[in-house]
Amino acid sequence: MQRTVRIIGAPTDYGTNRRGVDMGPSAIRYAGLGDRLDESGRQTTDVGDLFVARTAGQSQRATDSNARHLEETREVCERIEAEVKDTVESGEIPLLLGGDHSVAIGTVNGATRESPMGAVWFDAHGDFNTPSTSPSGNVHGMPLAGLLGYGEFGEMDWARADGLREENVAIVGVRTLDEHERKLLRESDISVFTMSEIDTRGLTDVVADALATATDGVDGFHVSLDMDWLDPQIAPGVGTPVRGGATYREAHAAMEQVAERDDASLRSIEVVEVNPILDEANETAELATELVTSALGKRIY
């Protein structure tokens, strides 16, 4: 029996210096997410948006640790963690709508409270900077490093997810890395699948390996879908677009592979970085909605 999906909005842009992603949850809902999931046979409940305080001039203010709005990010992620934890304990699948990618810290921490798990990270970026290595100070470039306790995050209990096993993490579709990120990732036990590897081997084989990595020896996995994983020609409404991303059909094929896994093994899922200000006729939010419904089991036949 398929589990109910609990939709949770996290309208935050603390993790980026570009405004607009805080409107992502509204844009995705406007694209008909709830109705499409219902039509696919999934029961849903939408708890609305979690409270996110607004800060005047937030795009200019940074903390001494070179991680902008880290305290505000912590507060939001702790709210997300509590809601996701309750969702998992209720036997439902938490579907987190971002917001910038820093929200993943809350989602994964909430989902790992039950037992250890893996993660498949669909992203153009590594998200593996730390406050001391980040060239921008934007926390949306740090969530994976934060969850795995790298650098200063090792002392931040709210960020570090001890139940996320590094050897069970796979990043899919990477095509741009900072120098320090590249070094840290090479030294880690994370499996990194670049777009070049997808070009060479084919997406189906790469995603199969990523899912195998995420589920090896654990009973659950998390899916983090950053919409900049896709090529900006089909997903223009993202904050940090990078050319050469996944095509429309590749993205759906990947999400369909996620859906082929045992329903009980999908611990949580999030879709992030939809920026309606930069979008064209809500195209990116529409695509996000389609991909989420594919990941949760929608079928043509």
Automatic annotation (TrEMBL):
<dbReference type="InterPro" id="IPR006035">
    <property type="entry name" value="Ureohydrolase"/>
</dbReference>
<comment type="similarity">
    <text>Belongs to the arginase family.</text>
</comment>
<keyword id="KW-0056">Arginine metabolism</keyword>
<keyword id="KW-0479">Metal-binding</keyword>
<feature type="binding site">
    <location>
        <position position="101"/>
    </location>
    <ligand>
        <name>Mn(2+)</name>
    </ligand>
</feature>
<comment type="pathway">
    <text>Nitrogen metabolism; urea cycle; L-ornithine and urea from L-arginine: step 1/1.</text>
</comment>
<dbReference type="InterPro" id="IPR020855">
    <property type="entry name" value="Ureohydrolase_Mn_BS"/>
</dbReference>
<dbReference type="GO" id="GO:0004053">
    <property type="term" value="F:arginase activity"/>
</dbReference>
<dbReference type="GO" id="GO:0005737">
    <property type="term" value="C:cytoplasm"/>
</dbReference>
<dbReference type="InterPro" id="IPR023696">
    <property type="entry name" value="Ureohydrolase_dom_sf"/>
</dbReference>
<dbReference type="InterPro" id="IPR014033">
    <property type="entry name" value="Arginase"/>
</dbReference>
<feature type="binding site">
    <location>
        <position position="127"/>
    </location>
    <ligand>
        <name>Mn(2+)</name>
    </ligand>
</feature>
<feature type="binding site">
    <location>
        <position position="226"/>
    </location>
    <ligand>
        <name>Mn(2+)</name>
    </ligand>
</feature>
<dbReference type="GO" id="GO:0030145">
    <property type="term" value="F:manganese ion binding"/>
</dbReference>
<keyword id="KW-0464">Manganese</keyword>
<feature type="binding site">
    <location>
        <position position="228"/>
    </location>
    <ligand>
        <name>Mn(2+)</name>
    </ligand>
</feature>
<dbReference type="GO" id="GO:0000050">
    <property type="term" value="P:urea cycle"/>
</dbReference>
<dbReference type="Pfam" id="PF00491">
    <property type="entry name" value="Arginase"/>
</dbReference>
<protein>
    <recommendedName>
        <fullName>Arginase</fullName>
        <ecNumber>3.5.3.1</ecNumber>
    </recommendedName>
</protein>
<keyword id="KW-0378">Hydrolase</keyword>
<feature type="binding site">
    <location>
        <position position="125"/>
    </location>
    <ligand>
        <name>Mn(2+)</name>
    </ligand>
</feature>
<dbReference type="GO" id="GO:0006525">
    <property type="term" value="P:arginine metabolic process"/>
</dbReference>
<feature type="binding site">
    <location>
        <position position="123"/>
    </location>
    <ligand>
        <name>Mn(2+)</name>
    </ligand>
</feature>
